[in-house]
From TrEMBL:
Biased composition (Basic and acidic residues): 386-399
Region forming the signal peptide: 1-33
Annotated organism of origin: Rhizobium tubonense
Pfam family, one: DUF459
Alphabetical list of SUPFAM superfamilies matching this protein: SGNH hydrolase
PROSITE patterns, A to Z: PROKAR_LIPOPROTEIN
Protein name, UniProt field: SGNH hydrolase-type esterase domain-containing protein
Region (Disordered): 57-97, 309-399
Keyword Signal in annotation: yes
InterPro entries for this protein: DUF459, SGNH_hydro_sf
Amino acid sequence: MKSPRACEKVPFARAFLASFLAVCFTLSCLVSAAEAQQRVEQRRSLLEMLFGRPASQPEYIPEAPPPRRTQRPRVKRSTPPPPQKTVVARPEEPAPAEKLDSAKKVLVIGDFLASGLGDGLADAFAASPGVVIETHGNVASGLVRQDYYDWQKQLPQMLDEANPAVVVIMIGANDRQQMVGDQLNEKFGSDVWFIAYEARVLAFAKIVTSRHIPLLWVGLPTFGSPSMTADCVKLNQIYQSQVESVGGEFIDIWDGFADENGKFIVTGSDVNGQQVRLRTADGVNLTAPGRRKVAFYVEKPARRLLGDQASPDITRLDTDKAGDLAGLPPSETNQPQRTQPISLSDPDLDGGAELLGAKAAPATVTSSPRDLLVEKGQTAPAPAGRVDDYRLLDTKTAH
């Protein structure tokens, strides 16, 4: 049995032990918190673990920014003007003239190319009051499909109604197809086809020349299709041979729409020498400059056939205009101006020995080489000994 003193010591020991444990627990919590904070502060990276932590550096204090410089006002520099494009001045088109009642008529007939040619000729003769252009073009017509449009029957009626001074024909662009009619059913390109086509061209040209009307037949140009271009070469040969055989004139426009090798071109020189687009995107139709260029080839022979009526500066004298001459202001002096008489029997006054017109003009005038080339297409013979002189020398004279 325990003593009373021992029983008193037991509660005291328990209280002391509880207090000690509480103090130890508090200290352990404080130490763990400090260690955790220290571990957070001393956490090192992989590089710091390998190479060590660098020495502490002094705290960086940013320097004060330098004072701003006052910007000077910008001076606006005058920019030079852009270079101006050189514009080539084209000659002004003559103003359309009022046509005379007695103006001669040019009848243009054919397919869609003839319609464009008529527009070009109307521009070419716009300033000529003595010339009127009348165009009858059927876009899809030709000399092959007479069942679609028969030119052989339509042309005589047109000639009777128009009474033209010159007839211009441009046809054939639609004729590369099977020939139907006159008991024929031939494919394009056969010998029978070409023989029948020559007969139709000849008969068509005779309708005009039999009435003693000048005929100008315009050939076909190149086209975008190489096969069509090759066929047009054959057709142009037929036109030239058949038309010239009945007294007509064939106008070749091939070089104006082809390059130096005779192939199709889209752009080329217009009537003013400027590079322009002559053909449309389909390689068949003509642009406005192209139509005017075709008319340029026809204009010269047409003016030659029309004579003075085709002159652009022809004037018309009416009685009303003639009466206006009487209303002109009088001269400054009413006295007529007199000149000193000159003796006709004293030709030495002007340094001559005889009067003008004393000698009769030569009966024949020799044409110059230029006139022969332009009007008749004849070239002068090459001088003897030149490289293009192909005349054979007499063997006796050479020796």
